C-alpha cells in the first residue's frame, strides 16, 4: 500500500525523552502576510463601525451642513464666514479664547463665549485659538442640545488671521484683505 506524501513541509525533532516530534514548518513570510491581512480587516471594520456610530449619534441639527459632520460637529469653511461678515448675515460669532487674547484681536463682530445668551434656533458660529482647540467643539455640543443652530469654524483665530493664504482661493489673493474681517488693538 502506497503512503500519501504530505504537501506540508515538516521538521522532525527528537525531544529529551527520545520521542520523535513532527512539527510543520511555516514560512515566516506567509505568516506575516496573514497577520497583516487580519490587521487591515480589523482596522477597516473598526473604522466603519466608528463612522457609522458617529453619524447615527450626531444631533439632527448638525447633519447635512456645508462641510459635513466631523466628530459630531459642523465645520464651516472660513471663506464662507467672510461672506457672512461681508453680507452682515444673522450669525452670532463666538470666540472661546480668554479675555486677553480677545482684546488683542478677534473676528469682526465676535463676542466672548461668556457674554453669549442662549437663544433657541439662533445661528451661531464658534472658533478658538487654532483648528485643534477643543473648546469650540465642547461649546458646540452643549449648544446643540439646547436647539441652537451651531457651527464650528474649520480654522482657529491663528489660522484665520495669520495664514489666510491657506484658505482663501488663490484667484482672490490680490483682492482679499484680512483687515476687513478682524478687529485688532495696536
The major beta sheet can be summarized as:
6 strands, mixed
Tell me, what is the CATH class of the largest domain?
Alpha Beta
> If strands are numbered along the chain, what order do they take across the biggest sheet?
3-4-9-8-5-7
- Sheet/helix structural class: alpha/beta
Helix content: 25-40%
Indicate the overall shape: elongated
Q: Mind explaining what this structure looks like?
A:
The structure is a single chain. The protein has about 190 residues and is of the alpha/beta class. The protein folds into 2 domains: about 10-55; about 60-185, Oxidized Rhodanese, domain 1 (3-Layer(aba) Sandwich). It is built from 5 helices and 10 strands; from the N terminus they run ββαββαβαβββαβαβ. The chain has helices at about 30-55, 80-85, 100-105, 135-145, 155-160; strands spanning about 10-15, 20-25, 70, 75, 90-95, 105, 110, 125, 150-155, 180-185. A 6-stranded mixed β-sheet has the order 3-4-9-8-5-7. β3 and β4 (about 75) form a beta hairpin. The chain starts with 9 loop residues before the first strand and ends with a strand. Residues about 55-70 have low confidence and may be disordered.
